[in-house]
Amino acid sequence: VCKISVTPPCLFLLLQQNPLKTSASNRFDMSSFEVSLQQLNDLLTDESGFYSWPTKHFHEVYPRIYVGNAFVATNVMRLKRLGITHILNAAEGNSFMHVNTSAEFYAGTGIIYHGIPASDTDHFDISVYFEEAADFIEKALAYKNKKVYVHCREGYSRSPTLVIAYLMLQQNMDIHTALAMIRQKREIGPNDGFLRQLCRLNQRLSAEGKLWNK
Fold first, then answer.
1. Contact 142/85 with Cβ under 8 angstroms?
2. Helices (H) and strands (E) in the chain, counts
3. Residues in Cβ contact with 47 at an 8 Å cutoff, skipping those fewer than 6 apart
4. Total tally of structural domains belonging to the chain
5. Which sites are catalytic (predicted)?
6. Which CATH number is 154's domain given?
């Protein structure tokens, strides 16, 4: 069951203490598919209940999948040096909170672009893009020499949410495993609305018998 918590929005998560931390004895049972937001937020915070801001512009969070910020996404030379062949912009748009790139921005570079116009708010339904994003990443990784850079503005909420959904949909990971794997590689903090939507995806895939961590 997805429960409501009071995690602050993405841009205010830095050094904010989680008011709903639970003791180690109350942490989730990894064999259970009943997921609460508190359990997921416990995975995102350190032992003192603090969130951390990303320490680098980007991290390789899964083989050939990079999660990062807009600074690197708009630096074509840097992308080419990294061997990036595909870009998934999880924050396509022209507002301050979005990244205004497009296929035209990468024209002539050989980089294949896909944009998703997500906003980093609790009420935005990013789940309608889960399948689309997962399909884009999976098709890119079908070729051994391809690498995907998934980004939003900060590489903190929107882009890791889409990569977690990919791991659940295409790699059959449960939400705990997918989120913990990404968090081990990069400091992330999907907003609670996004976490609720990942909870619902977890419940659906579990009911369909598509998750391997049973």
1. no
2. 7, 5
3. none
4. 1
5. 152
6. 3.90.190.10
* Average pLDDT rounded to a whole number, residues 149-173: 98
Q: Cβ contacts of residue 50 below 8 Å, gap of 6+?
A: 15, 16, 17, 18
Residue 131 resides in a domain: yes
Q: Which residue has the tokens 């009071």?
A: 6
Cα four-point dihedral sign 76, 78, 83, 85: negative
Structure-token pair, residue 156: 């903190």
What is d(CA 67, CA 195) in angstroms, rounded to the nearest whole number? 17
Report if residue 119 sits inside a domain.
yes
Residue tagged 């935005």 (tokens): 124
* Tokens 């630096």 found at: 75
- How far is Cα 120 from Cα 195, in angstroms, rounded to an integer? 12
Tell me the per-residue pLDDT of 73-90, one tens digit each, with 9 for 90 and over.
Answer: 999 999 999 999 999 999
Residue 113 in contact with residue 89, Cβ under 8 Å? yes
Q: How far apart are CA 193 and CA 197, in angstroms?
A: 6
**Active site residue ranges:** 152
End-to-end alpha carbon distance in the chain: 17
Q: Are strands 148-151 and 86-89 parallel, antiparallel or unpaired?
A: parallel
The parent domain of residue 163 ranges over: 54-214
**Within-domain flag for 9:** no
CA distance 89 to 46: 28
Closest CA to 39 of 47, 48, 28: 28
Q: Per DSSP, what are the bridge partners of residue 10?
A: none
Asked if the structure places residue 101 within a domain, the reply is yes
